[in-house]
Amino acid sequence: RDVAQKVFRHYVDSFVPKCPVVILAPGTTQEYLRETRPLLFLSILSVASSDFCSVNQQHELVLESKRALFERAIVRGEQSLELVQALQLASLWYRAPDNYKQVSLTQQTHIMIAMAFDLGLDQVDLTQPVDSGGQEAWDRAEAERAWLACFLLSTSISLILRRSTMMSWSSDMDAYLNDLQMAQVSPSDGFFCELVRIEHLYHTMDQQFFLSDRHQSASARDPNTIWMAQDFRSRLNSWRSRCDLNWLQRGLLYAHEPVMHINHNINEFEAPFTYKSLKTCTFISEHIDTPQRLMLREIVTASHRLLNCFLGIPLADMLSLSPHIYGGRVIYSLVLLCKLYKSLATSTRSVPDYLLVEDLHLDQYLDRVVFVARDLLTLDTGNILSRSFLIVEQLRKWYHKHRYGSSLSPQPPPPYALRLAPRRDDCHEPAQLPRAHTLLRGSHGWQRSHDDPWSRPIEKTVSFPEDYSRYSYQERHIVGRYDWFVDDLFHIDLFN
Fold first, then answer.
1. pLDDT in tens, 373-418
2. Is 121 in the same domain as 38?
3. Which subcellular locations apply to this protein (predicted)?
């Protein structure tokens, strides 16, 4: 009971602020939630308990939660707001599966959306006045959050995978956002509405630039495409004072991605990322014009800012981030930088005067994310964010093989390499500041040190398999069975 209380508080204090999709009414206790909403309580335990139990216990909690959810949702055919919310938590913070044959993230999301439609969450009556501090206002806000969260999840997953979206934006979503923003039933509703709005903007970019449409394309040389990219950039910059900069940089990447397309090769920009993602990189040519040069520079700047913002997050806080929303897009930004490197290295131009290989800072960023993956795995071996980053070790080997002629990465850099804690209003270029990626065991558990310039890298690391040659062609193409990343525990070299 004491452990359950700690997990409950950890969810409220650490998980909800990152993505306030399923929040609890003020005064809700773990005993009350366990009694009235046992499925939601179990889902909370399964996603937030890694700091309070063993790996085996955490694994059993995840299995028990999945069994309960799918027993009720599929076998019994039950439908309820509690089930929708429990599925949302299981999707936002899903844990590593035993193998690829288990229910995937997209399957969970489809079930959740179908149930939300059947429950009529898209038809909440907003015409009836309710007491702003009463139970009716809370119930209405809870239904609105659940419906908007379905869109947030489905759109983010669809864009990462470059698939047709499972939900489209509708006028009722605008009404829900306005109602939530005005009612302010929960202090976190304002932030939640901003997350939904910016994900809607990503969705609009996807549609306008045909990022997921294999039959239509947008040319970066088309004046209309250039104008749309500039318009999206202006709209994103207007958010700068209101939203997390991390989210804004992702939008800038999507807005300028068409400049890297060759014959609409959007399959190279979909997750899971493999060597095929780096296949076509001839977008830098003799005939590239000023607008396209500026778009490429914008991709470099946005990638650096996104990575700086992410690497500035305390390590303990990373464990409570939604894996696909953060991890998938961090890897995406690194893949874009690698494509830029390959294009620069193979360009027919002797020395492109607007962009140099050194401007990419790939060595530092690849090293940093690998260090993050290793340290996260040390803390929580079942964390999807850290396991998805294991692919960056392979990406780093690919980069060093092509640039330095060796597939082996160099030793970790000296303590002065890359700024990890940018100012909130900055997130700009790399700077020479102390390497702060260390873990300290303090009175409050694992903490990340940002201030000690003499702190050393954590000694306990995760070993990476070196010999992939014994695996068959079929095993190397197991990638198609996954959602947005391939777990490195299957020992498949995806970039060789």
1. 889 988 888 888 888 888 898 899 999 998 888 755 545 443 333 3
2. yes
3. Nucleus
**3-state DSSP call for residue 93?**
coil
pLDDT the model gives residue 456: 28
Same domain, 32 and 178: yes
Q: Is 164 in the same domain as 268?
A: no
For the chain, residues with pLDDT lower than 70 are: 96-103, 240-246, 286, 349-353, 407-484, 486-496
Q: What is the dihedral of CA 11, 12, 18, 24, to 10 degrees?
A: 120
Q: How crowded is residue 477: how many other Cβ atoms within 10 Å of its Cβ?
A: 13
Assess whether 177 and 276 both reside in one domain. Answer: no
Residue at token pair 């490429």? 296
Mean pLDDT (the chain) is: 80
Reduced to 3 states (helix: H, G, I; strand: E, B; else coil), residue 26 is coil
Domain count, the chain: 2
Q: Return all residues near 202 (Cβ < 8 A) that are at least 6 apart.
A: 155, 156, 159, 250, 251, 254
Four-CA torsion 161, 163, 166, 172, nearest 10 degrees: 90
Q: Are residues 137 and 220 in the same domain?
A: no
Q: Are 88 and 112 in contact (CB under 8 A)?
A: yes
Angle subtended at Cα 179 by Cα 177 and Cα 185, rounded to the nearest 5 degrees: 105
Cα dihedral 130, 135, 140, 141 sign: positive
Tokens describing residue 283: 């977008």
Burial class (CB in 10 A: 0-12, 13-18, 19+), 275: middle
**Dihedral through CA 146, CA 147, CA 150, CA 151, nearest 10?**
-140
Q: Please, what's the b/e burial string for 410-436 (b: 16 or more CB within 10 A of its CB; e: otherwise)?
A: eebeebebbbbbbeeeebeebeebbbb
Tokens found for residue 134: 């009463």
Whole-angstrom distance, CA of residue 346 vs CA of residue 335: 16
Tell which of 186, 209, 232 closes a domain. 209
Query: Which amino acid type is present at position 442?
Result: G
- Model confidence, pTM: 0.84
Answer with the one of 163, 185, 209 that is the final residue of a domain. 209
Q: Kindly state whether residues 225 and 194 are assigned to the same domain.
A: no
Q: What residue numbers bound the domain in which 445 lies?
A: 211-496
Amino acid identity, position 120: G
- Contact in structure between 307 and 330 (CB atoms under 8 Å): yes
* Separation of first and last alpha carbons in the chain: 49
Same domain? For 354 and 310 the reply is yes
Closest CA to 204 of 176, 169, 230: 169
Q: What is the largest CA-CA distance in the chain?
A: 70
Q: Which of 316, 317, 300 is nearest to 308 (CA)?
A: 300
Tell me which residue has tokens 């999507």. 254
